Amino acid sequence: MERSPKHLPLTALALALMGILSTPAAAETNTDDRLKALEQRLNTLESENRTLKEQLTQTEQKVEATGNQMDRIASQGGASNTATSIGGYGELHLNKLKNRKAGGTNKDELDLHRFVLFMSHQFDESTRFFSELEVEHGVTKDTATGSSGVVAVEQMYLDFSLSDAMSVKAGLMVMPVGIISETHEPPTFYGVERNPVETNIIPTTWREGGVTVTARLADNISFDGMISSGLATTAAKNFAVRDGRLSGASAKAKDPAYTARLKWTGLPGIELATTLQRQTDITQSVEATAGGATLYEAHAVLNHGRFGLRALYAGWNLDGSGPKALGADKQNGWYVEPSWKFTEQWGVFARRSTWDNRAGDIADSRYKQTDFGVNFWPHADVVVKLDYQSQQVPSGQDEFDGFNLGLGYQF
């Protein structure tokens, strides 16, 4: 039906009133939506603020710990005639391990594994002396039990600073390879015992006499080059690299070793490094059936907030028919270790390790080990550790499963 012109103003008025009445409701709805969005944003900002405060607190604690350590060193050093400082570390282990090998002996042992004293002296701004004296297993010889320990100089070297970017060390030093070789104090790593890959393949703490040049190639890249005495393993030792360490004790020096390491620390909490070593004769020319040896190693360390990760691979290639006949021409291993710190005092870890000192043959000679446990730091330099280990080993070998409890410190 056609609408008359006189009805148009009424219709327009009705529409205008509806618009006026509906506008507050729409405005109210939009306001509620904006308030909810603002509330959600505020909650998000509050959560992010809490996280930043936690990270700041952790950073302040680490800075404070470092400052305290520097204060202790400064209080012992400083003037040229009082620039001698001391330190040390130690660890006590309780092993309760069951031997799964038929007829094997369980390991129920309490051992003062290491007692180490540091001593350093600052001669001047560019010349410094550093040393470590270590006692292993508490005694040198226990006549009552027949057990024996070790007293040894683990390190003794002079450090010459040539410039801000270069230094030279000469003396007896641990080799620049792996993660824990140079930093092996108990509060700095997880697990009561040092991991089996860096024990049997690298092996930590392998030390030799020689000269090392350290250069900073860029702000985040450093290079270490070392010439030193080498290993001296033989067929009687199954060409095991660990048994070839001479530790600077009248070490045979006919065939030196050459070591090079490249390390990158371009992001906070991240370290990437690789090491290559070559020795012309791993028997020190004692056996004609063996020759040169090459070590190659790479690792990554990641620390991001509460999460940590360590991963390492290392391997040896030994030349000659002697190592090849035993399968020892190839020796290698790897491990992966994630960890999580709930607080600055509590942290947990898990580690999977596999290693083989006779990887060159077809026989089953590979060892595997799983570890998991907890570290408790009542102080940044004191740690209590508890872990469980489970092994899978070649047929007929000792296979230890069980618990380890440890106490360690550094100062």
Tell me what the structure shows.
The chain has 411 residues and is an alpha+beta fold. The chain has two domains: 18-76; 83-410, Beta Barrel (Porin). The protein is 19% helix and 47% strand. The chain is built from three helices and 16 strands. It has helices at residues 8-76, 196-200, 321-326, and strands at residues 84-99, 107-124, 127-141, 148-163, 166-174, 207-218, 221-228, 257-264, 270-279, 293-304, 307-318, 330-341, 346-356, 367-379, 382-392, 400-410. It has a 16-stranded antiparallel barrel with strand order 1-2-3-4-5-6-7-8-9-10-11-12-13-14-15-16. A hairpin with a 5-residue loop joins strand 8 (257-264) and strand 9 (270-279). Residues 1-18 and 56-80 have low confidence and may be disordered.
Question: What is the fold's blueprint, element by element?
Answer:
Elements: H1 8-76, E1 84-99, E2 107-124, E3 127-141, E4 148-163, E5 166-174, H2 196-200, E6 207-218, E7 221-228, E8 257-264, E9 270-279, E10 293-304, E11 307-318, H3 321-326, E12 330-341, E13 346-356, E14 367-379, E15 382-392, E16 400-410
Antiparallel strand pairs: 1-2, 1-16, 2-3, 3-4, 4-5, 5-6, 6-7, 7-8, 8-9, 9-10, 10-11, 11-12, 12-13, 13-14, 14-15, 15-16
Question: Descriptors for this entry?
Answer:
16 strands, disordered N terminus, 16-stranded antiparallel β-barrel, 19% helix, single chain, Porin, globular, alpha+beta, 47% strand, 411 residues, 3 helices
